[in-house]
Amino acid sequence: MMYQQSKAEKFLRVKKYDEESFHRSIRLTLIVGQMFGLFPVTNVSSKNYKRMKFTIKSLKMFYSFLIPLLITALLIQSIRVAITSTENEPGCVFGVAISHRAALSNAVFYTATTLEYFTFFWISSKWPEFQKLWKTMEIKLNSSGNDCPKIWWKINKISFGIISFALIEHLMWIFLNIEIEKQNALKNCLNDNSSYEYILNGLGESYVIVIDTYAAFAWTFTDLFIILVSTGLAERYIFMNKLAMDSKLLNDQNYWTNLRINYSILSNLVKKADKLVSPLIFVSITNNFFCISSQLFFGITSDNTIVIFFSLIFFTFTLVKMAITIYAASRIHQESKIIMPLIYDCTPSEFTIETERLQYQLEFDNVVLTGFNFFELTRRFMLGID
Questions:
Q1: Which of 156, 216, 229, 288 is deepest in the core (most CB within 10 A)?
Q2: CA max distance for the chain
Q3: In which family does this protein belong, per the annotation (predicted)?
Q4: Is there a contact between 97 and 257 (Cβ–Cβ < 8 Å)?
C-alpha cells in the first residue's frame, strides 16, 4: 500500500513538473509567432517536447520564407524612395506616399526585421536539440527538491501584456498614417484618375499595411522571445538560490557537491542559450536604439502636432520595451551571484573543499547573455545606456 501511494505521489509530482516546464510554458507564444511566419518548427503545440522537429520541406518553412521576401520588396522600394526623393518631394511605395526621412527610417527597420526572420530560421533549426538540453536540466534539478519554479502563468502573462501593448501601438501607427493622408501632407500617388489605377493603388496600400504589420510583430516578438528565454533561466536561478538560502545542511559536504553540480548544469545551459540567442539580441538592441533615436528626432523636428504627439508615444513604448528586455536578461547574471554571501558567512567547519570550488566557480564563471559577444546584458550595461 505504501509503495502504491509513493508511486502515485511520484506520478503527480512529475506531472506537475511537466506542466511547469519551459516547453509547455512557452509553446502558446511560439504558436502565435508561427501565425506571423516566425519559428518554423513543427509540433510546437505538442505537450511532448520530443515531437518537435525542424523540417525544411514543410508548409511552415515555405510560409516563414515567403514573409521576409515580401518585407524585402518593401525594403527595396523604401531604399529607392530614400535615394530618389527629397525633403520637399516625397516618393511612393506601392501607392503609399512616404517622405524622404520616413523612407530612410523604414529601410533600416525592414532590414532589421528581415534579419530577425532569418535569425529565427537558424534558431528554429537548433531549437529541438536545445529543448532536450533544457529538459535534461529540469529533470536533474527537480530531482534535488520537492518543487519547481512556477513559470507557466508568469511567461504567458508577460506574453499577453507585451503583445497587447504592441497591438495598441501598431493600431496607433496606422491611425497616424491615415491622419497624415487626410491632411494631404504628402503628394497624390495616382498617375491618373482611372478606376484601374484606383484598384492598383488600393491593393498597394493593403499590401503595405499587411506586410508592415508582419514586420512590426517580428520586431515585438524578437524582444518577447529574448525576455521569455531570460525569464525561464532567471526563475530557475531564483528558485535554486532560495533552496540554498533555506537549507540547514551547510555542514554537509554532499550538499555542497550537489549544489555546485546544479549551478554548473544551469551555467552550461545559459552558455548554450547565449550561443543561440546572441545574434537575435544584437539585432534587437541595435534596432531598438535606432527606433528610439529616429522617433525622438521626428518628434523634435516635426511641425505637425499629431506627428509630434505620436512620435513621443512610440519613443516611450520602444524605450520601455528595450528596458524590459535588458532587465529580463540582466537578471540571469544578477541571480547567478546571489548566494555568494552565503558562502562568505560559512563557518570554518562548513567551508569544505566543495564550498571553495563553488565559490571559485561563482566568482569567475561569467554567466551572462550577450549581443554576439559585443556587449553583455547586465545591470551595469543597463545603467550605461541610461
A1: 229
A2: 91
A3: Belongs to the insect chemoreceptor superfamily. Gustatory receptor (GR) family. Gr5a subfamily.
A4: no
